[in-house]
Amino acid sequence: MLVLFALAWAALTAFTAIAVLIPWISFAAKNIVYKMAVDSFATVFALAIFYLGVWRFLLWRRYTDLLIALAFLIFAATSGIVGVWMPARYYPAWAHAPYPFYAWLLTRLAGGLLLAGGLLVTTRQAQRARAWREAIVLAAGTLVGTCAFLYLLALGRRHLPQLVGPEGWAVVDAHRVVKEVLPGQAPQLLIAQALLGILFVVVSWGYLLYYCRGRARLFGWLAIGLGVAAASQFHYVAYPTTFSPLVSTGDYLRLVSYSVVLLGLVDDYVRVQRAEAALNRGLAGLYRVTTLWMPHGDLWSLLAGLAEAVCDATEARTATVMLLPGADEPGPGPRAWAPRDDTLGERLLSLPPAGTIGDRALASGIPTLVRRLAVSEHPEAELGLTSGVAAPLSGEHGAIGVVAAYRDQGAFSHHDLRFLQVLAAQAATLVQNARLQQQVAEAAIELERTRLSREVHDRLAQEIGSVNLQLAHLLARAPEDERLRRQLRDAKRAAESALLEARQVIAELRAGPGGVEDLAGVLAAFADEFGQNHGLEVQVEVSEDLGPVQPALGHELLRIAQEALYNAYEHGQAIHVHVALGVEAGELVLRIQDDGRGFTPHQVRRRPGRGRGLTFMQERAQQHGGRVRVASEPGRGTCVEARIPRVEAR
Q1: pLDDT (average), residues 137-166
Q2: Interhelix angle for 217-238 vs 249-290, to 10°?
Q3: How far apart are alpha carbons 546 and 518 in whole angstroms?
Q4: pLDDT digit string, tens, across residues 387-428
Q5: Where does 226-332 show beta strands of DSSP type E?
Q6: What are the CA-CA distances from residue 166 to residues 96, 170, 193, 620 (Å)?
Q7: Cis bond leading into 92, ω under 30°?
Q8: Whole-number pLDDT of residue 514
Q9: CB 117 within 8 A of CB 69
């Protein structure tokens, strides 16, 4: 805007110099069509500025807008009445009358005073009561005073001193092209025109000063428009506005000045609409972030919801969220991206972190904005992305993660960066609260598991063991009644099976989440014990590149394996079961393949009360962004495959 202001003044200076120095450049020329068109357009533009100014005042209650609107209402009346209506009605009767000059000078002075008052009220905007009083007094005083003086001038129009002499009127009446300053002008007319030009110059620089102090962009447009108005006023020194059909350079510049101010108001309106739309998106995104923990209750869903909120709020192509591991969490933290049906976010997270804007923001702890991504500097540019913004999730002891957003068209702004900071700060608090809740929940679950294992051991297992001993004693002393002995043997086998199940439950409860580094061992031990207790041949195969696994993931995989093995024994009546655990494409993969009688998965899910085990396995995997696939056919066994995004331990 400053560059545009300087260019406008340079152009005006050059135009004025050319008009003064080059003899064949005229100040005015005879063309009544142009004259009426210029004044008509000036009236329309000034009325449009008045309407937009009043709209802004009603919207934001800024008294500067009200004073600007009233100033251009006066300018509209001047152009419409003095420039169009009066010449059409009274020309040539008032051709040499001085009243139009006085009316023109008075109304231009009133408009300039209102524009200057807008500067004064701007400094009082923080003190709304004082600003209101000053704006009302200035507006009412200027309007009432202008109308009163115009009325008095109209009453005494026959006694007003002439401002243009006979030789000047001779030039006007000749309707010829004027290439020099209009002769015969009274000194007071020249002084009044020059003072009005100086007034507009001062007001123009005043609005520019407020724009440089970080005020509204509209002030910059006003500074340029009033600068053009000042130039037009200085051109009126050479050839003032009259009833004649001659259109002057001052008339053209006046129309340009109104056009610039109107353009500024339209530009500001568009910017305001965009800002309000961005604000609404931002508020919606902030609300979504603040309520993310409520419907989900798990950390991964929180991150996925945060990524979606960032995409919606910043109109990004994709957004990614990455957490660092907590103090008691080995390995890198969970990651998420949005939209979930697009692989672009997944490809972003698979890039080497060095050099990405997320890595820079995380390392420096400072939000990062890159308007144009360069392939030589930013790995994200290789994916067709053009602009990026990132903000760290800052906790009490430093950064705990980073959120980044990218566009493939257009660039982010500093407004987007500031808003992303707000979302990141809110999300960091939610992440810390979520981790604390998870820790509390895990501690409570562990206590409850310990209590239940003791209860099962001290009561249920002992009672079943006692029943088993009594049945064995009765079987040893039973008579030779084969039917009775068979019933006792069946009861004893049922008691032994129940006792094995109770011991299995105790082992599962005491195992808890298990150490992540022992996942392979815990899985192998459980499979071996399960096979011995239930007469199955269970083979466990663990990939060598498995590495340590996060506790929560290891716990869920173990529970999925337990459910699948139980289904293979109870429903599939399998003899051989193969359990494989490994890593494929960045995901932990658990496969349980049995040679049981199989089933049709979709038919089982349709039966009321059936398929709950499959549902539970699916829910366990989905809590960590994974999925479970069941492949089975009657008579051909069953394969249960669980895939969960890998979160390694340190």
Answers
A1: 86
A2: 180
A3: 11
A4: 999 999 887 777 888 999 999 888 888 878 888 888 888 778
A5: 246-248, 318-323
A6: 9, 6, 20, 101
A7: yes
A8: 44
A9: no
Pairing mode, strands 627-632 and 638-645: antiparallel
In angstroms, the CA 107 to CA 72 distance is 10
Structure tokens at 169: 């009127």
Alpha carbon distances (Å) from 221 to 46, 69, 224: 15, 15, 5
| Both tokens assigned to 420 | 């992303």
Tell me what pLDDT residue 425 has.
83
Cα separation, 380 vs 640, whole angstroms: 37
- Tell me the H-state helices in 299-413: 299-314, 344-350, 357-364
Q: What are phi and psi of 323, to 5 degrees?
A: -110, 145
The more confident residue out of 109 and 529 is 109
Q: Tell me, what's the pLDDT at 47?
A: 93
Q: Which of 526, 549, 551, 550 is nearest to 536 (CA)?
A: 526
How far, CA to CA in Å, does 41 sit from each of 8, 80, 83, 267, 269?
Answer: 21, 9, 11, 20, 21
Give the strands of the sheet with 537-542, arranged side by side. 537-542, 576-584, 587-594, 638-645, 627-632
Is the separation of the CB atoms in 639 and 591 below 8 Å? yes
Query: Tens digit of pLDDT for each residue in 103-113?
Result: 888 999 999 99
First to last CA, the chain: 54
Read off the pTM: 0.53
pLDDT tens digits along 354-393: 788 988 888 888 888 998 998 888 888 888 899 999 999 8
Of the candidates 575, 577, 576, the residue with the CA atom closest to the CA atom of residue 590:
577
* Cis before 339 (ω within 30): yes
